[in-house]
Amino acid sequence: MQELADRERLNIVEVKKESHSAKISGTRPLFLEILKEINLERYNAILSWSPDRLSRNAGDLGSLVDLMDRKKLVHIKTYSQSFTDNPNEKFLLMILCSQAKLENDNRSLHVQRGIRNKCEQGWRPCPAPLGYINYSHEGTKKVMLDKEVAPYIKELFELVAHANYSGRDLREHLKEDKNLRDLTNKKIPLSMIYSTLKNPFYYGEFEYPRGSGKWYKGKHPSIVEKWLFDVVQRKLITCKKSKRGSTFFIFKHTFKCAYCGANFVGEQKEKSLKSGKRRIYTYYRCSRQIDPNCQEPYVNENELIGELINYVGLIENKKDSNLHLNSKIRGRMEKYTKLRESLLASKEVYISDKVTFTEYFKYIIYNGANEEKQEAIETLKLPLFIHNKTVYTHPLG
In this protein, which residues make up the domain named Recombinase (predicted)? Predict the structure, then answer.
């Protein structure tokens, strides 16, 4: 493109490079910056490899055409085409970008259909859990038993069912066992022990996507029988009611009711699915310690996480930001930046900028240990307030 600019004697004001996908409108910072600078008449033309590099969604395409209608953007030049404020050329631009959107949408449908077909054939499209090994056969990724690890997995279920072991008992039992390790060759953490005991994949069924309620019969060999799995689930529920198995609520002491000022408290509810299985959901509600008649509604934990991530994104770039990034948090962010860079480098995607606190916060809330989650939340100015599932920095009224 630089050679093209030199050949046609185009005056290049600035070169911008961005790796964000053009699929969703309003999500590319540099593209939004370009629109703003065109509005400010810093430049009035764009040189790009092809139209689909500029937009593969209706929103961004509309912004470009609107700028051309207002004579702010007079020329879009690609390697093989040129678009100006001409009805036919603008129409062609819209067709090419819409075609790119159609291809993108169809590709997504093809991927979803392929995943659904694979599930219906009995193969879960995810990395195999502990005790299994992924392998490829005739173009399909399948799952086989890990003959060294599978007996240990079955033993965990049997110890819970027949010897009343708790998750912590199992962790102690496995402490000195060098054969059972996670993918990073570390000892199995308590959270992984519980997730293993609750995973129906081990008796031959799986849900995909998780939380969708769509269940499939797997073709992989089972490690435990269905009756043994059911016994373990009943034991775990009993264990959970004891003090030793008390529930960790990620937003404990984080929120107050914006309506009456009382603390928001967490609780879990169990729901029976049509398949006969049971699922536990986490909610937060006003404790009503100040106003027994407070009408503030319940908030699902997943909704609350989404709202909090949006709130962090809004305040991060403010001059009077409420964030308190101590040295420990900054150190964790640097480690996450290196981890992210190494993962992206393995996919031949290179990003040199450090991650923002919002990116780090989102990663930790969804994937971090309980201690890391608490540390990330404590960087905010607490308490925050909730009203109608929305986060506020102060009470209402």
Answer: 129-242
